[in-house]
Amino acid sequence: MTAASDRPGPDQPAFDVLLSGTVFLDIVFTGLPRPPAAGTEVWAEGLGSCPGGIANLAVALSRLHLRTALAAAFSEDVYGDFCWEVLADQEGVDLSCCRRFYGWHSPVTVSMAMDRDRSMVTHGHRPPVSADELLAPPPRTRACFVHVQPEEEAWVRTAKEQGALMFADVGWDRTEVWASSLLEQLSGYDVFLPNHVEAMRYTRADSPEAAAAVLAEHVPVVVVTRGGRGAVAVDATTGESVDVPGLNVAALDPTGAGDVFGAGFVVGTLAGWPLAHRVRFANLCAALSVQHFGGSLSAPGWGDIAAWWRTVSRRGDEELRGYGFLDDLLPAHAPADVRRASATIGLRLPR
Questions:
Q1: What strands lie across the sheet with 165-169, from one edge to the other?
Q2: pLDDT tens, position by position, 98-138
């Protein structure tokens, strides 16, 4: 059912995927009628709270039964307690490479979902410890998912030398320079998964498809996501290209959908699936996630995926025929047992 084995053998890596990054407390408002204007108040129909940032990817991977390890700094404030407990106790993410710090507060992001998109306001300070300090050395892992930095981190270089498959993405360029020098940093990565805005601006291409072709000159496999319009992928090693349209779903909150897409693509890659199956599976994971609050706790589990396929496979829709590979992948009965984001960060037990 998944790419991971239940228990690693004595000569196998301890983890399927290793991540590093910043964990935020995400507070997500949905159902906003309009953006708040200066001097006004807008009421939202929905509210959810959950760990965000790199936690989106960590939870999405763990829910797909990959042994996932995270290296991050956590505050000892209440937000940090909440994020730690959700990741470690509820979601089964390994936090043995993480450290907690007194006097440094948890970063916070407020996300406002409107018209199938979202806007964010974030506050935080640089973590008191670097990833290289947390991962000295990194544990052995089958794969790493790396947020590309201006300068390569030492732990990334070590993980490559240990044979890990390297996945990468890139964040919004706050300078809006979109320096093309980023393309040179992709050397050594196996898979690159930017969204269409990032891909087009870094390559100066006029379409996601053209951007993917340019990026494929720098990295073996490129996947450019297009939000609700699906994704385009190019495998430069085989010359294969895939264009998968989006699925028609009722989107509540797109926060973290790109991370959930990335998790689905990692699963398919580690399992050795064909490129088209990998993109469709990732596309499905992202589509299921946008129907729920929040980035991390909106990620689907295998039960959610099985329930969706049992429902839609009865249809004769042309666009769904490409998902027929799920028949051989999913169990006959899989409970939808994942937790969703709630309006508060925690409730005390009644006395």
A1: 68-71, 15-20, 141-147, 165-169, 191-192, 221-225, 231-235, 240-244
A2: 999 999 999 999 988 777 677 888 999 999 999 999 999 99
* Helix, strand, coil percent content, the chain, rounded in steps of 5: 30, 20, 45
Please identify which residue in the block is written with the tokens 């996947």.
Answer: 223
- How many residues are present in the chain? 351
How far apart are alpha carbons 49 and 38 in whole angstroms?
Answer: 25
Pairwise CA distance, residues 279 & 240, whole Å:
12
Tokens of 62: 């763990």
Rounded Cα gap, residues 199 and 182, in angstroms: 11
d(C-alpha 119, C-alpha 139), whole Å: 36
Q: What pTM value is reported for the model?
A: 0.91
**Joined tokens for residue 72:** 């991050």
* Mean pLDDT within 204-226: 95
By DSSP bridging, strand 221-225 and strand 231-235 are antiparallel
CB 71 within 8 A of CB 134: yes
Greatest CA separation found in the chain?
A: 63
Say if CB 228 and CB 246 are below 8 A apart: yes
Residue 11 in tokens: 């000569």
- Please name the amino acid found at residue 195: N
Separation between Cα atoms, residue 146 and residue 288, nearest integer Å:
24
Spatial CB neighbours of 125, under 8 Å, sequence gap ≥ 6: 104, 105, 107
Identify the helix (H) or strand (E) that includes residue 79: helix 78-85
For residue 27, what pLDDT band results from cuts at 50, 70 and 90?
very high
* Domains (range + CATH), the chain: 15-321 (3.40.1190.20)
